[in-house]
Amino acid sequence: MNRYISKLGIWTTAALTLASCTKKEIQRPNVLIIMADDHAANAISAYGSHLAKVAPTPNIDRIANQGIILENCFSTNAICTPSRATLLSGQYSHINGVKTLKDTYHPKQEGLAQILQQNGYQTAIFGKWHLHSEPQGFDQWQVLPSQGHYFDPEFKTKGVDCNTPYDKREMVQKKGYVTNIITQMSLEWLKKRNTKEPFLLMVHQKAPHALWEYDPKYKDLFKDVSIPEPPSLFENKKHRAPITIRKQNDLHRLYRRMTGQMKISTVHNYKEWPTGKLVANDTTEQGRIRATYQKYLKDYLRCVRSVDDGVGNILDYLEQNNLAENTIVIYTSDQGMFLGEHQYLDKRWIFEEGIRMPFLIRWPKHFKANQKRSQVVANVDFAPSILDFCGITAPSYMQGKSIRPILKNKNAKWENLLYYRYWMHRDMTPAHFGVRTERYKLVFYYGLNLDTHSFGHPNTPAAWEFYDLENDPHEMHNQYRNPKYKNVIDSLKVQMKKKRDQIGDTDKHYPKLLSRYQNTL
Q1: Which of 413, 441, 464 is the last residue of a domain?
Q2: Could you tell me the CATH number of the domain that includes residue 99?
Q3: Which candidate among 100, 201, 208, 403 keeps its CA 20 to 30 Å from the CA of 224?
Q4: Residue of 108, 77, 117, 21 whose CA lies nearest to 365
Q5: Whole-number Å distance between alpha carbons of 67 and 25
Q6: pLDDT in tens, 290-344
C-alpha cells in the first residue's frame, strides 16, 4: 500500500477534520511558491527596515497585508544549493547530502514535489534550480543552468535532449530580461494547466543575485536618492573572536571590482562591472565604502523592483481568475543577504542578515490578514508545512515540522530553536554551527575542511561567539566572555548538543572537530 495518503484519503481526512464544512470548502488548495535568490528581508518593505520607505515592495507586501509575515524565519545552511535541497526534502544538509555548492541533489527519499504529484497535484517549476541534477516530481520544468544569465538567458527544458546527461543537455534561449521571462513562463503554464486539478507552481527568480544586472527601464530608479545606511556599516569589530574578523571586508573587495582594480571573479566572466564602473569622489576609506554601498544597493534594489513587478502580475492573475481564495501563496528567498551590514555582502555567516529568510504567506480561506508571527522557523519546516496545508501527512524522514499551528494561533506551543550549520569552509568564512533562540545566539567556529567538502582553504582556529539579540539586535557586541551570561551560554550548549543528537548531526566521523569542540568548552 502506498505510504502516502491517496486522493481518497485526502478527502476522507479533510472530511473528518472539517466535518461541518461543505464539499467546496474542503477543496484541496493550490500552492504557489515564489522564491527569489539572495533577497534579504531588509529589502522587503513589509519588514520595516531602514530601507522600507526608500525602496518599497508593494506587491510582495500585498501577501503580508492579506496574510501572515514570519519575522524569524531562517535557513539552516545559508548558501544557495543546500538551502534549496532543504526546502524540497524537509531535511538538514547532512541528511539530504547537499552541504555545499559543489554537492548534487540526489534525493534518497521523495520530496515535496514528488509527494504532491503522487497525490494528484499538477507540478511545475520555472527559473533557478541550482541543484546540479534533473528536477524530479515536476510535470513541467524550465530551469536555468547554474546561475544563468540576466539577459537572453538559456533554459534546460523537460523533454528536450532528455537522453543526454543533464549537465550536457541542449538549452533553449529566450530573448529578454530573465525576471520577466520567468514570470511570463509561469503565467503561461497557469493558463494552460488542467483547471480540474490542484497545482504546485514554483516560480524561482534569479534576481537579485550578483552581479545585480537590472532591467534597463529602471536605470534611473534611485538616481537622486541616498540609500540609508545600516547601523553596523562601520562596526568596530574588536568585540569579535579574532578569526571572524576579515582582513579586508566585502565592500573593500567590491570597490576594487566595481572600479576595475580587481578581477570580478571566475564565476562571472566579465571584463568590467556590468552596470558600469564605480566612480568615487571621496577616496578616503570611509568614502570608498560609502560610494560602494550606494552603487551596490541601487543595483540590487533595481533588481528587486522587477521581482516585485512579477509578483504583482501573478497575484493579479490569481485574483482575475478566481484562484486567490484557495491558493496558498508563499514568498521567500533561498536565504538572506548582507546589504552592507558589518560591511558584508553575500550570506553564509550565522549573523541575522545572512540567515534570515523572508517568508510571507497568504491563504485567505484559513489565515487572517495582516498578521505577524515571531516564532523561530526554519526552511526545514517548509515541506512538512505545505504537505499539511494540502491534507497530506509528511513522511517520517522529513525532519521539519508543520508551522500550521502557529499560523492559526500565535500562542501555540513551539520549540523556538534554530540549529544552523555552514559546512563550506573558507578562510574568509570559517565553517561553523550554532543555535538561535528567540533572544540569544551561540555559535562555534570550528574552522575545518571536512573530507570531500573541502574547498582547499586552510584550517582556521576554533572560536565561540554569543549575542543577546534583545539588547544587541545588530550583533555588534560579542558577549561570550561576559560572566553575566555564563548560565545562559551553558544552557545553550546543552540545547545545542541535544538538538544535534536529535537530528543526527553528531560529527562522530570527525574526531578532530570533536576534539576542538571539547577543548574550547
Answers
A1: 413
A2: 3.40.720.10
A3: 208
A4: 21
A5: 19
A6: 999 999 999 999 999 999 999 999 999 999 999 999 999 999 999 999 999 999 9
